[in-house]
Amino acid sequence: MTTSKTFEGNFNLTFNKTTELLELKPHTEGKYTAETAGECLASAMAFCDANSNAGFNRWDFYIPNVNQTIERDDKVLRAEHVRDAVKRGDTPVVRAGKWGKPKMTIAGPVTHIKKSDDNIVTL
């Protein structure tokens, strides 16, 4: 598994009226950066609260173990999923996705579990 890099540069949070989805778009004079991911997510949630039909573009916003349950052809990550992740204490991180486009991952802290060596026996 490869680790993607933190997104460098600015981006905007946009709403596509046709698809009714919030998306992340790179922009040289964009309002947000990787360091302000929390502010971007708060703006997105406030927008969804005011617009009940709004959803998140699942290719721009990723929640582990949630996006995998969405049908492959469906582009919508529902606001309820994002709200649940935030309530759990998950935090947003903006990484460089495919073609260098910003992609927000909303997840809890990564915990590394040390695997014991089954070939060693303590006597």
Strand portion? 25-35%
Strand order, largest beta sheet: 1-2-3-5
Which regions contain 5 or more consecutive residues with pLDDT less than 50?
none
Number of helices: 2
Shape: globular
| Distance between the first and last residues' Cα | 36 Å
Count of discrete structural domains: 1
Rg: 17 Å
Major beta sheet summary:
4 strands, mixed
Q: Helix- and strand-based class?
A: alpha/beta
Order of H and E elements: EEHEEEHEE
Average pLDDT confidence is 88
Number of strands: 7
Helix content: 10-25%
Could you give the topology of this structure?
Blueprint: E1 11-16, E2 21-26, H1 37-50, E3 55-57, E4 61-62, E5 76-77, H2 79-88, E6 91-96, E7 102-107
Parallel strand pairs: 2-3, 4-7
Antiparallel strand pairs: 1-2, 3-5, 6-7
Descriptors:
123 residues; alpha/beta; three-stranded mixed sheet; 2 helices
What does this structure look like?
- With 123 residues, the protein is an alpha/beta fold.
- 20% of the residues lie in helices and 25% in strands.
- The protein is built from 2 helices and 7 strands, in the order ββαβββαββ.
- The chain has helices at 37-50, 79-88, and strands at 11-16, 21-26, 55-57, 61-62, 76-77, 91-96, 102-107.
- The strands form 2 sheets. Strands 1-2-3-5 form a 4-stranded mixed beta sheet. Strands 4-7-6 form a 3-stranded mixed beta sheet, with helices on one face.
- The longest helix has 14 residues, at 37-50.
- The radius of gyration is 17 Å and the shape is globular.
- The model has no long low-confidence stretch (mean pLDDT 88).
